[in-house]
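Side project, low priority. Logging it here so it doesn't get lost.
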Amino acid sequence: MGDIIQGRTRAVLIGLLVICALMPVAAHAFVFSAPQYSILKGDRSGPDIFTIGGIEEECEEGYFKGYYSSQILEVEPIFGQCTAKALGGLPSNYVLYRCTFQVRAVDRAGEGGTWVAPVDLKCPTNYKLRWQIFESEEQHEEAKNVCTTTVPPQKNIGTAEVTNMKGSRDDITIRWNLSGMRYETYGSALYCGGREGATKRGASYRGYTTVQATDLTEKEPWNLVVRG
């Protein structure tokens, strides 16, 4: 009888081990650690590349500003010196109308101290992110564009890989990997990469940012770290 019981116990334990092995590994949540309502400032630390309708645009200047509150980093990107590379380097610009990227600390932990967070695009009521292309610098200065693309506010537009900067207690780095965003184009199909007015999906943005937290005066650095 004892051998039967031991055999059954062994079988149950083996079954439990198999079930545990087959179960998915639970996601590891992470948190941002910073004083509430910190002011955020950031500089690009790599190329900023947008792709809309198959047309790639790169910006040579960029910085970010925003704030931290309730486990959300909210930053407004500001870009300059942008060109549409696929169109021979025509001048272009982004008008964000105070649209922001919201990075939410709710997703899984990655490898090597990098955490992956979902990103939302948030805009004021009735506003959208706007991208414009111009045929020349003169038309750029006169605000006469040949294509306008608008991107409305939307959730889950991609991810941000967040990493603590080595040797710093108040800097983090963000690798933006945003894709599949809905957008609409108005203007020349040649310059817009598709027919006018139709809602499409597939706009993307890739870039790198170093973000620092400060007090409300923007003079005193505050600790900003990610903890898993």
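Brief comment: Residues 13 and 223 are 47 Å apart (CA to CA).
Revisit when time allows.
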